Structure formats: C-alpha cells, structure tokens
Amino acid sequence: MADSNNSVSNDEILLSVRHLKKSYGDHEVLRDISFDVPRGKVFVLLGPSGSGKSTLIRCLNGLETIQGGTISFKGEPIDGREKTWRRLRTEIGMVFQSYDLFPNLTVAQNILLGPTKVQKRPKDEVERQMDGLLADVQLSEYRDAYPRELSGGQKQRIAIVRALTMNPELMLFDEVTASLDPEMVREVLELMLGLAEHHMTMIVVTHEMEFARRVADTVLFLENGVILERQSGHDFFTHPETDRAKAFLESMAPISDGE
Ligand SMILES: Nc1ncnc2c1ncn2[C@@H]1O[C@H](COP(=O)(O)OP(=O)(O)OP(=O)(O)O)[C@@H](O)[C@H]1O
Ligand SMILES: [Mg+2]
C-alpha cells in the first residue's frame, strides 16, 4: 500500500468538533457532539440504528448543514460555505455504503476525474499513483473495465482507491461493507486495516465488530444523538461502561449455538 501523506506528528489534532448540533425541523438528531481526532488515529462510531452515525459523518464532509457548534480541520474552523467544503472535500475523502462510481466511466476514468479535474494535477503523475494503488488492491486488470463488470467488493475497493488518489488527510467510511456479500467483506476490511497500519486518519462507521475491535484507537458510542461513551478501542470492547453499550455489544455478538 502506498504510504499516505500523513506523517504522524506529535498529537496534532486534525479534526475538532465542538458542540455540534444537527436537526431536521424539530427533530434534534445530533446534540452537543464534541471530540478531537488526532492525526494518524482511527475513530470508530458505534451505536444503534438511528443514533446519528451517518448524519455525523455527513456533517463532517459538509453534506449536511449544521445548526450549532463548530467543525475545525487542521486548526481552522470551517465556515460552512459550499465553496469551502468543495475545497475541503479533496482533503476529506468519503466512502459510503453504496459504491458511487459513475457507471458510464471506466475504472481509470472514475479514479482520474477528481485529481485531474478538481485538483488539476498532471495526468501522468496521477496515473502512476493510480496504477500503484490498483496493484496494491490487486485490481490492475480492471483498469479499463466499467463498474458493471465488477463485483460489489471490487467496486467498493475501487471507490476507496478513487478517494485515496486525492491524497486525503482524513477518510470517512460509512458502512462500506454493509451491502456486500459476506465473502467480499473481508477484502474491503483488509484494505481498510492496511490504511490504518499506514497511519491514515479515519472515522469509520461499521457493524463489523471484530474489525472495529482491531482497528479502533478510540470508540465513540452514540445514542440518540449524543456521545454516550468514549473509550479506547480495547477498553470499549473488554469493559464497556454503560449498560446501553453492553447491551449493544451483546446484540452484535455472533449468534451462539444455543447452549
Ligand atoms: N434527511 C433526513 N431528514 C429527516 N430525518 C433524517 C434524515 N436523515 C436522517 N434522519 C433522522 O436522523 C436520525 C439519525 O439517522 P442516521 O441515519 O444518522 O442514523 P444511523 O446511526 O446512521 O443509523 P443506521 O445504523 O441505521 O445507519 C434518525 O432518526 C433519522 O430518521
Ligand atoms: Mg447510518
């Protein structure tokens, strides 16, 4: 895996969220959310359905307007203007549950679009980077294929490569394996584990608990739009503090054989 451009410096805070509020009409979906993500760390967002995980991730990429609080990136508060977010989206990559590749473009065209058109980088340089990343994920032979010719797992890995080719400093993942067949989940999770090993700063929503346990430096457990629990990955999975988190982990445990 090509190393990310994140040199791990001493506890630099890459992303800082303070008192973030998000509502849809009268419905407060996120209430007073505050946390700091140091560069090079992996934060995993866990919590029951409807607790606000996707909404939070979307706020961090400017896909939702916020009703209160601040989001700062590299020490600068983000002013919330679309122009600012357009610039920041080249530094904050995001991959969703549904692979959002353009169906009418080849894999290479999908990947090259952002770096050459938005970032205006030289095509040959971006192509070299792309070819290296495609080789890393063993998808070089699909360079000129169309998304319809790829499996779900392959599409999702291409979506991740596409985001990485922008050289993001922060990656946001929202249930990227949720719509994959089980045998394709592993290849995507392994790619993400590799990114974590290379100190990519990541915020990850996942229902894959074994993966979460391995990858999380910090777990934020959300319920009803608040951070109910904030612990190191190890502590959260070995001794969650709240009954709510304990019940959540039990509900996510593999089905036992009934003994
Ligand atoms: N566009 C929207 N308009 C109105 N309400 C919304 C919208 N998007 C989300 N919500 C509400 O916000 C709350 C949080 O939703 P969100 O999708 O963030 O939850 P989640 O934690 O990601 O859940 P899941 O695990 O099911 O993906 C829910 O009550 C949901 O109904
Ligand atoms: Mg969600």
Automatic annotation (TrEMBL):
It holds the Pfam family ABC_tran. CDD domains: ABC_HisP_GlnQ. Residues 15-249 form the ABC transporter domain. InterPro entries: AAA+_ATPase, ABC_ATPase_HisP-typ, ABC_transporter-like_ATP-bd, ABC_transporter-like_CS, MetN_ABC_transporter-like, P-loop_NTPase. SUPFAM superfamilies: P-loop containing nucleoside triphosphate hydrolases (SSF52540). It comes from the Bacteria. One of its GO terms (molecular function) is ATP binding. The keyword Transport applies. Keywords: ATP-binding, Nucleotide-binding, Transport. SMART domains: AAA. Belongs to the ABC transporter superfamily. PANTHER family: AMINO ACID IMPORT ATP-BINDING PROTEIN, PHOSPHONATES IMPORT ATP-BINDING PROTEIN PHNC. This is Glutamine ABC transporter ATP-binding protein. It comes from Bifidobacterium catulorum.
